[in-house]
Amino acid sequence: GQNIDQPTEMTATEGAIVQINCTYQTSGFNGLFWYQQHAGEAPTFLSYNVLDGLEEKGRFSSFLSRSKGYSYLLLKELQMKDSASYLCAVADSNYQLIWGAGTKLIIKP
Amino acid sequence: GAVVSQHPSRVICKSGTSVKIECRSLDFQATTMFWYRQFPKQSLMLMATSNEGSKATYEQGVEKDKFLINHASLTLSTLTVTSAHPEDSSFYICSARGGGDYNEQFFGPGTRLTVL
Predict the structure, then answer these.
(1) For residue range B8-42, what is the model confidence (pLDDT) as tens digits?
(2) What is the share, in percent, of chain A residues with pLDDT greater than 90?
(3) Which residues of chain A lie closer than 8 angstroms to B102, CB-CB?
(4) Mean per-residue pLDDT over chain A, rounded
(5) Coil, strand or helix at A44
(6) What is the DSSP letter of A2?
(7) How many degrees, rounded to 5, is the angle at CA A5 between CA A65 and CA B95?
(8) Residue B99 pLDDT > 80, yes or no?
């Protein structure tokens, strides 16, 4: 079956760095997405990885290892507004998105 | 980035009535649109995938006669919840694909449905 695993909840301190991991097992792979979702709002696109390596975009970076079925989202210089759920999703062989359950990130002052 | 609108943002209705939710891609043509449902503190659940001009593909367990989807144009899809009941109360979110560099989905702001 298809499966996306990510931690349910993480806590970090304002100004610090946090890494949210995602492991996946899917039928085919056409890229991995990270989305941010604030409570009561729709998800917003953060990043896309289809090749191995690190993609950096401002304070956010995303890493992919296809051989390991593994990705992480790295958030630097954390701000209170980064408190949200972070969703990992993989596009399978049919380009259908398989969604993880999301990681709720709590930022403390 | 590409913009997707959704209307209404909130709706409260009586049990047994039908509710229509509209999803529009404002600045791009969406080849595919998706409808999700999200219950509190849970992840997104894909309900159906629709391509313009063809019938929607429903996920297992989603009743196609209860959740009617119409994708009449490349910029508009509608979801009608027929004979809504309190258990249909949820956050309904549409997304559209076709306007990004990575084939990513762009989400509408969501519709919070409350059935009394």
Answers:
(1) 999 999 999 999 999 999 988 888 999 999 998 78
(2) 88
(3) 31, 33, 48, 50
(4) 95
(5) strand
(6) -
(7) 90
(8) no
Closest residue, chain A, to B91 (C-alpha): A40
CA atoms of B67 and B30, how far apart (whole Å): 20
Q: Report the residue count for chain B.
A: 116
| Alpha helix ranges (H) inside B27-109 | none
The CA distance from B16 to the nearest CA of chain A, in Å, is: 25
Q: Look at residue A64 in the predicted model and tell me its pLDDT.
A: 98
Q: Which two tokens stand for residue B36?
A: 């999700």
Picking from B68, B83, B75, the residue whose alpha carbon sits closest to that of residue B99 is B75
A42 with B93: Cβ contact below 8 A:
yes
Q: Are the C-beta atoms of residues B34 and B48 closer than 8 Å to each other?
A: yes
Query: What's the CA gap between A76 and A42, in Å, rounded?
Result: 23
Torsion of CA A37, A18, A96, B26, to 10 degrees: 40
